Amino acid sequence: MGSTTTTDEIRLQELKAFDETKAGVKGLVDQGILKIPTLFHNPPHNFSTNTKQTIPVIDFTNIGKDPNARQEIIRQVREASETWGFFQVINHGVPLNVLQDMKDGVTRFHEQDTEVKKEMYTRDLTKPFMYNSNFALYSPAPLNWGDTLVWHMFSDTAKPEDFPVVCRDIILEYGRHVMNLGLELLELLSEALGLDPNHLKNLDCYKGNALLCHYYPPCPEPELTMGAAGHCDPSFFTVLLQDHIGGLQIRHEDNWIDIPAIPEAFVVNIGDVMQIQEC
């Protein structure tokens, strides 16, 4: 009797074949596919969407100049973190042109020639830079329709020549700005918890940062898949920059809420580790 190939074995073969292309989801789109592989099929979701609600938008104007303004910002951060776990930040000090240049740089990287990108494709977590599709590719879960470039900002082994040429300068500039904003947020969250402003920084909460640059190519069957499935962030917090397309949703009181894409804003997500810290 001949051996029978199981469904799991077929899936593993398909995953390996996809991984070995090193072209990611963008590679599938470049092939001109009209039907997405079943690996990307997500089960139907019964979303209960509440578009009337929205997360708080906190204005950081005068945060370092006016003590009263700072105390009001701390109050808003505390309330938003406790009530929502999310908030948007405007007038945060990162120039608007830097935000736009960063979004353009990410697009340039993901839309450059596949043969160039392949040189950076890896699943080796020790690398200061990684480009691949779906971190948990070999898990049982359906795949997400997206590719990602990762810079492990805590790595001291990265050299300028290791950065992608098409977005090297803007990644470094953006990284400096976001790190400064992250340190400011750590101070605010410390004070919101009634602690010394340096409390979270002294716990090295600013170390271990990673910059994730996601790219979601056009999908021929968007009703069958998701760019990013529902998840929690296992971090202190995430600082997210949306593009003009938007699409981000958060779950609040059993509703999925659309987060409007404000060009000059960052979305801050209080992560799992921060919630443990608060406890």
Describe the protein's topology:
Blueprint: H1 7-21, H2 24-30, E1 57-59, H3 67-83, E2 86-90, H4 96-110, H5 114-118, E3 129-132, E4 147-152, H6 168-192, H7 199-202, E5 210-215, E6 237-240, E7 249-252, E8 255-258, E9 266-270, H8 272-278
Helix pairs in contact: 3-6, 4-6
Account of the 3D structure:
This protein is α+β, with helices and mostly antiparallel strands and 279 residues long. It has a single domain (7-278), classed as B-lactam Antibiotic, Isopenicillin N Synthase, Chain (Jelly Rolls), CATH 2.60.120. The chain has helices at residues 7-21, 24-30, 67-83, 96-110, 114-118, 168-192, 199-202, 272-278, and strands at 57-59, 86-90, 129-132, 147-152, 210-215, 237-240, 249-252, 255-258, 266-270. The chain has a four-stranded mixed beta sheet. Strand 1 (57-59), helix 3 (67-83) and strand 2 form a beta-alpha-beta unit. The mean pLDDT is 91.
Anisotropy-based shape: globular
In N-to-C order, the SSE pattern is HHEHEHHEEHHEEEEEH
N-C termini distance: 59 Å
The assigned structural class equals alpha+beta
Number of strands: 9
The level-1 CATH class: Mainly Beta
Helix content: 25-40%
Which regions contain 5 or more consecutive residues with pLDDT less than 50?
A: none
Mean of pLDDT: 91
* CATH fold type: Jelly Rolls
Strand line-up of the largest beta sheet: 1-2-9-6
Radius of gyration: 20 Å
Question: In this structure, how is the largest beta sheet organized?
Answer: 4 strands, mixed
Which percent band covers the strand fraction?
A: 5-15%
Give the count of structural domains: 1
Count of discrete alpha- or pi-helical segments spanning 4 or more residues: 8
Supply the CATH superfamily name: B-lactam Antibiotic, Isopenicillin N Synthase, Chain
CATH architecture, by name, is: Sandwich
